Amino acid sequence: MASTRLAYLSYVRAVGSTKTLAGAGCSVCCRRRLCSSSSRLQSCMPAWVIDQYGPNGVLRFTDEIPVPAINFASEVMIKVCAASLNPLDISMRGGYGAKLLKLRRDPMSVMDSDSEFPLILGRDVSGVVVDCGSGVTHFAPGDEVWAAVPPWKQGSLAEFVTLTEYEVSHKPKLLSHTEAASIPYVAATALSALVNAGGLCRDNCSNKRVLITGGSGGVGTFSIQLLKAWGAHVTVTCSHNAEGLVRGLGADEVVDYMAGDVAAQLDMMEKFDVILDNVGGETEQWALSLLKPWSGAKYVTLVTPFLLNTDSMGLLDGIVRSGFTLHNKAIQNIISNGVFYRWGFYAPDGPALDEISKLVDAGKTRDLAQTLYGEMFHLEECVRPPPGGDIER
Q1: pTM here?
Q2: Residues 154-206: pLDDT tens digits?
Q3: Which CDD domains does its entry note (predicted)?
Q4: Among 78, 166, 216, 269, which residue's CB has the most CB atoms within a 10 Å radius?
Q5: Residue 39 half-sphere exposure, CB side, CA atoms within 13 Å?
Q6: Distance between CA 67 and CA 193 in Å, rounded?
Q7: Residues 272 and 290 sit within 8 Å (Cβ to Cβ)
Q8: Are 331 and 319 in contact (CB under 8 A)?
Q9: Are 203 and 174 in contact (CB under 8 A)?
């Protein structure tokens, strides 16, 4: 299921027993005791780590990873109750983005060869705050929270994770931890692409026509619901098997990319104000012509060569090549038909997740949580390993 997010319930060894991360150490009766003592008394925690980049075999379980310390006044420590995997985690396991992400973790690493290992994967987390830095004002021990862990930080496939309060949000009250762990990374990515790059928001979406290519994946399914909650008209491309899913989430029109020429089918429709491209490749060659010319329309792609360039060409050459490519495409499209060409990226944003939390509790995105939660349990027996086993098949 390459087009969907793989949600993962990892086994951890806690106090002589084996439990899933979903619900581990997070019952109401023990929360306050946990917040006041657990993280401070123990020095090591269980986690899934990699010690080198490679295939499934590089992943190992250990209970000897140091508990992450609070090093800055704005940081909070979270006891992980549920975590999930994204396709990005699988790519990172193989070394995708390694050079730039290592530099982002430690800017001084450009001067030496210090290893970034052991590395903990996992981009989504739902859990309970157990400790706070002196400058934290929005959270307190015992708060139930969710977050998307930036890829340059140690991930959520562990007992604890430390983030800044600006990357964390209060968990929706209507969702369990396991349901909540299916949302933050795709939500943050979708918001960054649609708002920061696409210029959309709740106040300007009415009557806007938006096309989402590859709309049945995690970012696509979340974007459908968000855009419909904001009043946009949403067209989606996906396979026939996913049509029921995206229509159930609110898509107004659905084009089966396997049923003939998808570009020709879309060309018969009214032009679009924004295109969110989750597919990349040849899509860009025909999708740009579907935008309204000379009206401020925007093409936003989440499939960029940026990290591939820095991996293959080195940091400096990769950054220069990426900037040159983006600049040329942006200039070419603004001159030829007056549309804006942009790259979309994940951006950590706790306050944005606050807005998503409100939408979830208002029932606007409940279906997505249940859909991804259902996928989690459908996939659990396929992706959940015994200690030392594979995490995907």
Answers
A1: 0.83
A2: 999 999 999 999 999 999 999 999 999 999 999 999 999 999 999 999 999 99
A3: RTN4I1 (cd08248)
A4: 78
A5: 27
A6: 33
A7: yes
A8: no
A9: no
